[in-house]
Amino acid sequence: MTAELQTASQILRRRKRIERELAVLRTMESHLFTREIVWAILTILGIAALVMLVAVQAHWLSGSPLLATGIATLTGFAVWWIGRRWFALAAIIVFGLVLILLEDLPDLGDIGDAGGGSAKEQRRVKLERAIARREALLAQLDGHRS
Questions:
Q1: Alpha-carbon torsion 71, 74, 77, 81, what sign?
Q2: Spans of all domains in the chain
Q3: DSSP letters along the chain, please?
Q4: Mean pLDDT, to the nearest integer, of 95-121?
Q5: What sign for the dihedral angle of Cα 29, 33, 34, 35?
Q6: Are the CB atoms for 76 and 45 separated by under 8 Å?
Q7: Closest among 88, 29, 79, 33 to 54, alpha carbons compared
Q8: Given this model, what pLDDT does residue 3 score?
Q9: Residue 14: is its pLDDT beyond 70?
Q10: Is-contact 54 99, C-beta < 8 A?
């Protein structure tokens, strides 16, 4: 009797597994359009370019081609392995690679500045004026109290 229950249980588990696999395959079948394939190829190329740029930065910082090659290989393998299991985590890693890549780029200054100053400079001047106004108001209030 237990053998019959066990085989019935195994058959039920196998049936559910096959149904899940079939659902996944049908979902995959419905997503096989040319546009999705093109986007997948472009994404793969983009991630590969990102890994290569991180390797170039590693070579630039360390001066070692072997270290740059190792970093590129390990980074690519990690993104591939994690992306197979947890896509959201792979997306976070790619975002982190972009941040690492842009972290130590040289500052090119204000390219194309028309004399108005950069946004940061304009905010600094505006802040200095606001501070000066408040200090003047406080000095005026202190003058009336004395």
A1: negative
A2: 1-31, 33-104
A3: -HHHHHHHHHHHHHHHHHHHHHHHHHHHHHT--HHHHHHHHHHHHHHHHHHHHHHHHHHHHH--HHHHHHHHHHHHHHHHHHHHH-HHHHHHHHHHHHHHHHHTPPP---TT--SS--HHHHHHHHHHHHHHHHHHHHHHHHHHH-
A4: 63
A5: negative
A6: no
A7: 79
A8: 61
A9: yes
A10: no
pLDDT at 29 over 70: no
Distance CA 60, CA 63 (A): 6
- Position 53 scores a pLDDT of 85
Amino acid identity of residue 5, one-letter, is L
Which of these, 70, 34, 39, 42, lies nearest to 55 by C-alpha position?
Answer: 70
Single-letter residue type at 25: L
With CA atoms as reference, report the closest residue to 54 among 36, 70, 38: 70
Average pLDDT over residues 99-118: 58
How far is residue 19's CA from residue 82's CA, in Å, rounded to a whole number? 26
Measured between alpha carbons, how far is 126 from 129 in angstroms, rounded to an integer?
Answer: 5
